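Hello forum,

I keep getting stuck at the same step: I have a sequence, I want structure tokens, and every attempt I make locally crashes halfway through. Rather than fight my setup again tonight, could one of you with a working pipeline run this one for me? It's a single chain of 85 residues.
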Amino acid sequence: MSPKISFRCGFTLIEILIVILIIAIVSGIVAPVAYKGVEGFKRLIRRAETANRVRMEKFFEFISDSRCTEDNGSFVCGKIRYEIK
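Reply #2:
Ran it on my machine without issues. Output:
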């Protein structure tokens, strides 16, 4: 009679629970760090948008000056011509 050879297929419930626990711990550590990075990026975008808005307001204030005239889709202020695309 030949000896019985048993093969183990699959994972036990304990092994699956341990893997889920490890994933939960790692995500608990990584998620706050990633969230801070996203918030920092959003803050950077808001700062750039504000700076761009201020520049555009100054530009339109400059071209609305009485010395500026419109010429074929561009503005001429003194000796400087601004092309608007």
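The first helix runs from residue 13 to 63. If your local run keeps crashing, start a new thread with the error log.
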